[in-house]
Amino acid sequence: MTFHANPTPLIMKEPFEPEASQKPITQPFDIELNSDRRAEERKNYDKLIKEREIHEQQRHREEEAERLAAEEKDFLELRKKLVHKAQPMKVLRAFEVKQSSKALTQPMSPSFKPLPSQRRNLHQIHNNVPEQ
Fold this sequence. Notes:
The chain is mainly α. It has helices at 9-12, 34-82, 116-128. The chain is elongated, with a radius of gyration of 60 Å.
């Protein structure tokens, strides 16, 4: 028994060619992606934040300028106040020396007494001193 292969039908046939469809061509919808919408919202939000920041910086610069002007004004006022201006001399009554009606104090010599602990030490010192 010998092996014989069957003939291949694909070699004999024409290749497959698809037919053109009778349906109309599909038009894509104009879709709006959520990410695109969110990106537009974020861009508007960033623009608003940037405007606020610029406005805040401008306000801060104006406040700083006002503060510096007020400091300069205060400094100039202080300098004016520090300048010495002569005051007119006050007219006073003439000073009269009057004799006192009190008696003069009589001077007295102080009487120093040693403290008790010092008395004991003095007593010991006087007793231990050899007589000559």
